[in-house]
Amino acid sequence: MTEYWMVRLGSGGKHAEEMIEAGYLGVDYDIDFDLGPNLGKGSAEFHRIMNDVWLDRNPGKNRRSAGLSMGNMWVACEGIREGDFVLTRKADQSFASGTVIGGYEYFPEAILPHRRRVEWRPRPITLDEMSPELAAAAQTPQTAYSLTGYAAELASLTGAITPAAQAAAPPLAAVQAAEVEHELAFQMEKQLEDFLAHNWRSTPLGRDYDIYTEDGEVKGQQYPTDTGPMDILAISRDRKRLLVVELKRGRVSDVVVGQIQRYMGYVQEELLEPGQSVEGIIIGREDDARIRRALSVAPNIRFMKYRVEFHLE
Predict the structure, then answer these.
(1) Which of 13, 72, 227, 246 could share a disulfide with 143, CB 3.0–4.6 Å?
(2) How far apart are the first and last CA of the chain?
(3) Which stretches of 37-154 are assigned E, i.e. beta strand?
(4) Listed residue (210, 262, 264) closest to 234, CA to CA
(5) Candidate from 5-9, 98-102, 220-224, 251-255 with smallest mean pLDDT
(6) Given this chain, do its domains 4-169 and 183-305 carry the same CATH topology?
(7) What are 26's strand-pairing partners?
């Protein structure tokens, strides 16, 4: 399945025009050597090697900064696959879109030297054309993160799905139910995540925790780990507790307990500073006896319910 990604080409899109003209996307992170030998082994191995390299080159930074930087680096260099869709913001505040058509390449001495070839589309997209949800997601201050929850809208905006193609598409009943359910679930969870992130301070969690920020920008949404991105990484106001938040639409399966424990294990091993601890929260619409049993022996993980309300007055 095609994945959809945001990749930022320099602060404020300052390198976007140059990279688009060259036909690439790229990242830097002060790594001045070929990453090829460290790719192809998966995210965990990449983090194991590169987090320490990055910390050596950035004295005074913590392991959360290293995990974030090298997580974004891995996504851009390997996690994004050939054939995936990418969106990037330009300096004029419009967005360019394209398809990744090549693997990792290294260009020493160039700006954003760690690159992937992209076939960029000529027509830009503006914020006014986007739904409010996509517009908010596209402005998240992260270098590389998933927009797959907005796949249908992005495909329509870029002409990958035309009205004629939609009319000619097979009826929904002809599509396998499992695929439909998977896609709807992904989109719902992504939109729940964006809503929670943008309304964080209005929730009970916002009283005690802040979404992780770095250099004044929110970086804790879709925080990369070696087993996939966390939905949200937050830190307590006293800086002593890190919080992993996992969102699920509808009824929550007990399988999610193992998933959040993997993310918490990553935080414990890679991100915690002395004196800090890690906690987890699963947010869903319904729980059941199985997840309650699983959580009864996981005292550092809580379950919270969300409720959706709709009013017309």
Answers:
(1) 72
(2) 41
(3) 85-89, 95-106, 114-120, 144-146
(4) 210
(5) 251-255
(6) no
(7) 115
